[in-house]
Fold these 4 entries.
Entry 1:
Amino acid sequence: MMSTDTRVRPRPPGRRLPIQVDADRMQLDVIRDTLHRAQAATWLRRADDWEWAAPRPDDYTGRATPEDLAERAHRCHAKAAACRAHAIVVSHPATEPLPSGLVEQLVTGATA
């Protein structure tokens, strides 16, 4: 007969989980990923990817309407512009003010 008790039973003391976590390796991976994301080249590549993802006239569009394709193209181009703006931010010296309009471009691309 199956038990109807749905409570989670505590793990007996002294028993280990089957997965071992290498904290040093995880810390190194987090630092490596952070440094990678801080490079302007990474954001420029992402911008290129967003531009590439935008619909083109020779693409097979299936059942998408021209309005759907225009909206998708606008969203992809806005994301690409935001990535390029992000590249400027991460490569900009912290002692100088950011170029005007850059923050608006970041926010617009992030919400597109």
Entry 2:
Amino acid sequence: MQALSESEEETEFRRTHRNSKLRFLKFRFRDCPLQISLGVLGKKWTLTVLRDIGIYKIERFNRLLESLPGISPRVLSTRLKQLEGIGMITRVEKQESPMIVRWALTEKGYDTMPIVFFLAAYGSKYNADEVFDDKKPRKLRELFDEEGMNLLRRFF
């Protein structure tokens, strides 16, 4: 077993995965980035709120309520505040009477779009019978326009 340097903290993840063989990875993590990311992105409605703001350009609270059947105003308000608090979206206020509030993705929020795209691609492939009228599975490149594909390429 390799000793940790003074700067390396013994985390639960390190302890439980210390002897695991690495597959696909070039190095060991201090903590699980998937688990940490799901702490935010894994909350109900979070990805669909990001999807609607980022892909469908739905920026107003009431429009988001309409686009997300089943979400309560309280839950939507909570998700928007959480996403704003961690820097994924920003509140854009227009000083009119009455004041108009819009929501926009920040760079950090924009960087979640490939996650949304890949989940959509997964659903389009394995749940095509529910997603498409013709029930035919689609590949990633069939789903997204040039701008969407360029966004994905930024990460690879």
Entry 3:
Amino acid sequence: MHQSRCIPLRQSLAPLYVQNRRDGSRLLSSALVICTIGATQIHQHWGVLVTSISAIVCIYWGYAYSRLER
């Protein structure tokens, strides 16, 4: 009989954030730069889109960064 192996969902998905503060600060600063670039082009449709998405990512990553151990 064929036995299927199931990978738990948590292990099959990539993590949404890193586990150390150094890499976390790099991700957060990159997202802030992208958000700033989008904000300079807010008068265009793509600027609004980039700013909106990157602002949400910045808020999430900022929260995740604050929860990492020092």
Entry 4:
Amino acid sequence: MITAKGNHLKLRLEDVESGTYRFIVTDDDGLNSEVTSVNLVVRGHIPWEIVGLTTGVLAIAIGRIIQRKMHDKRRFGKIRVISKPDAWVFVDGTLYGRSSMTSRFTEGLHEVRFWEELGYIECTKAAKVIPGKTTKVRCKLYEIPKVKLKVSAKSKRPMESIDP
């Protein structure tokens, strides 16, 4: 039986059967992952050597993720977007959701566009992401001025009759 509590899984050894167990190990950011499999042949009880082997395989997967993260040339920071009124947020042309929100981006300049449905002028700003920092981008969307039209069906000259 496998039970989950928070980020931890609990496996009762007496419930483990022979078969292939696939593990997906992911870092906290969800950017790096490693998939590994362990084939278990169980006859009677599970020897502790198999538990040790499985733990070792998972440790190797975790080590690969840590190594990949250390050598990752990309550096990350965050963009925090706030607008009045709340609006749809696009970063570099990709929809990220509604403001207010914070999301992680690679180092460098990014275009942040705030768009609200009918009735508001959209707003576009540049955001410079600095690794390990949060860049705040604020925008006030202005209402499109309302235009009043007066439509009249009255004519100043008399209507002419049209004969078929």
